[in-house]
Amino acid sequence: MCESSARRRDGEPTPYDVGLAEIAAGRRTVLKLGGAGLVFSSAAAGGALGTDAAAAAGKKLRKTKKRAYVLVVDGCLPEEIDSGLTPNLAGLRDGGFRYSRAASKPIMETIPNHVMMMTGVRPDRSGVPANSIYDRKEKVIRDLDRPRDLKADTIIERMNRRGLRTGTVLSKEYLYGIFGTRATDRWEPRPIVPVSGHAPDIFTMEAALAMLDELDPHLMFVNLGDVDRLGHTDFTGPSGVQAARRLGLIDTDLQVGRFIAALRASGRWEHSMVIVLADHSMDFSRPDRVVSLQGPFEDDPFLAGKFVIADNGGADLVYWTGPDRQREKAVKKMRRIAREVPGVLNCKNPQSSWMRLGPEAGDLVVFCKSGWRFSDPDPVTSNPIPGNHGHPATRPIPFFISGGHPRIPRRKASSKVAHTVDVAPTVADFFGIKGQPRGGYDGRSRL
Amino acid sequence: MTTSSSALPPVDRRTVLATGAAAGLVAAAGTGAAAADDASAKPKAQRYFQHGVASGDPRPKKVIIWTRVTPTPASKPGSGKGPTVDVRWQVAKDKRFRKVVKRGTFTTSAARDHTVKLDVTGLKPATWYFYRFTFDGAHSPVGTTRTAPRARSTPRNLRLGVVSCANLQAGWFSAYRGVAARNDLHAVLHLGDYLYEYAPGQYGMGQDNVDIREHDPAREMVSLSDYRRRHAQYKTDPDLQAAHAKYPWIVTWDDHEVTNDQYDTGAENHDAGEGNYLRRRARAHRAYDEWMPVQLNGTTELGDGDRLYRRLKFGQLAEISMLDLRTYRSEQVGTPVVDPAVSDPDRTITGAKQLRWLKKSLQRRKALWKVIGNPVMITPVTFGSLPGDLLDPINDVTGLLPEDGAPYNVDQWDGYTADRKEVFTFIKDHNVENALFITGDIHSGWACELPYDAGSYPLSGSAGVEFVCSSVTSNNLKDITGTPAGTTSRLVEAAIMAANPYIKYLNFDDHGFSVLDLTAKRAQMDWYVIGDRADKGTSITYETSFRTKTGTNQISRVGRPVA
Predict the structure, then answer these.
(1) Residue B322 sits in which domain range?
(2) Domain edge (last residue) among B121, B148, B175
(3) pLDDT higher than 70, residue A3
């Protein structure tokens, strides 16, 4: 689930607390840019920029005028680009290179798909399969919002090691948290909407524009969270009206338009690649379309007290906490019980070739049908919001590449499938960064 | 589709003969038996290959080629007579057959009505080929065909001719002439009612059932010989021959390939006097297998099964799933009484196995466009306030049956709403994108979005898009009411579109064909219409176009056809 209330231990510092501590400790240099008092932190010397040897190796690369911008319109549906509400996004898509069938990867949640974008690898290699997991060591359900949760190398770090500047402008607290201090330059998001835990797009874009003007990183990774956040809480969503979400689309499109205008005005456009995509789409459910597995599992004497469910909105991650020797039997029982619960679409092995979620995802993933949501462990209070994602209904995403650089195809479309995991290899390809992460990319360049 | 008996005299239509003005308009050309009789005076090639050539079911490395040889004058279609003979075949890169890439010999006999059908394998993907057959030193007409692109390729486009409902008695096949005249297609999609079962006088042109040409044999087809002769007769039509020779065809059947309103164990147009229905259907399927360039049960062999539903893939751009909505369906509910059985989950239009297969087709991520070759309409259709005296003719042409303001369509998916709901729910649950139903059957042109919930559309969202081609010749609303084009039909069209806001285009006036063009950005259907069905050389004109952009499940009118 992608809702506001972050899950962490009582008393555990928030990602923002951690960021402030890093700054206070002198590991980051604070910059205040722009008229709105925007705060950025940059890597201290010898930090994110990597070793002298690596920087020397990237000397030629550093001189490049190329710039790459990855703009994530969080939670956007591909058809919304044709809704008439997003003329700037539609113009970018139609003028560039679009992938007409692009998809999020499981779990169709924010954190894992942003991580896939920047790592180019699947969750079984990155360690980040969902927003919310059950941490077996700490025995707590928590968000994957700690920098060390991300175990794979990112394109951000690979570029840093070659002396290229990178920047993150991430509107959501947990994204800020998991990407931590990896980028050369990082926006310290303010203000944060207390309930949603994200910065409104207008502030996010102010930060992106300031970073563009003042820091000019080679790669900028921007998350625009309004469309998603307004979708989650849009109680007109299940009726199809989606009033708040539509307003969000209009505003986010305006913000993207500002960014593109700035690229053109500054002359950067001709050297730029702009990747626009979403991390997942969105589905709406009525209050009576709620699935809760906690009760049915507890009612089974064999399972009772020996499982934990990490609710991810459209997907439940179920963990067997009983004896290992009983795991197989337990998972069979879970499957059988879950399939009988109204609203359940199917059950998947998190280690299957399609899922590739890794051990952090537990023993069983249960997806809900379109128009439903999970609310676990409490069927009423755990997930009251109408807008959710994580299930197969929320796979399709927009994905297009625009920009004025000669390598960007103009007004073309591809029938191939593009995924979030393709972003890192595409950026690497654009900059000519040779080599791949150990084990290779799971995605591929879409240029 | 459902065909009407309302314009016929109140006697058993199987006994009705063409009389009066109708008989006077009957053209002598084209009956299978007559053609065979006249053939003895013709050159050998024309005598041996009277039924043209055809190809079908293109795959990346193979395609079916077909012909029928008439080795002796006695070897008439359906006769069961004639010797076993060897027919040579060649496939070449050039029309002069100097670069022959494949060749072979096919043995045929009266046991298979002297048809020749085989898979040519080992071909190159996305490649045009020429093919021909040779018997006794005489060559058949040369056909051209094209293989499908390789599975992982990303072709720039896929362009298909789209046709359905060709009743030989109702007119000339000018729509096929239009298809054959084009040079920009990759294949032809036929959605069924390739031929009709009726005897002369039973189902012809317009209100009076005028037979522009009479069916052969001059009786309703029931026996294997009947079905073979009827297939043979249709394949003597020069426009149909030209269209077959020009492109590979991808076909499915609707009801009239067997008989009207067929279902799993019977049909409206079948009675006990015509014998066991399943045996009749088996004979019809046998003749279809012999005479059509199609794989039944995944092979070109005869007698190994009659599963027609299958997938054809065109790179990563499109996959076509051809449905069979007749062989496994439950009997239609009674009409015109409202029958809650239309929503009975135990009733089916697809059959359980085919429904599972269809869902797999939809779930596969192999191609951008999930094209469903759909013999009958899936869009829910409700009526607005229509004048009562128009309801019968509408019913005649569409099978849409109004009842107390709560109309439905019992021969189509509207009569099997549980199956439709299951398909649409599956699409929604798995967020299947770009499901595109291409449909025939209803003798009219339609462009529709597919509402998850018709009552709350557009807020409820759309499961996909349906484009429906008109008939080649079979009667439409204008023909049945006998009113001029653009009068009664316009009123009905406006009323239906007003009551069903997801229906964006409806043409009850015209016959013709369509062109479907698929790219990575959009799918566009162009409708072309013919003039007078009774005029062999009638005009063919562009009517309109609609498109759907990828991922939207919405349609809009386009100002011009694809180039």
Answers:
(1) 13-30+156-558
(2) B148
(3) no
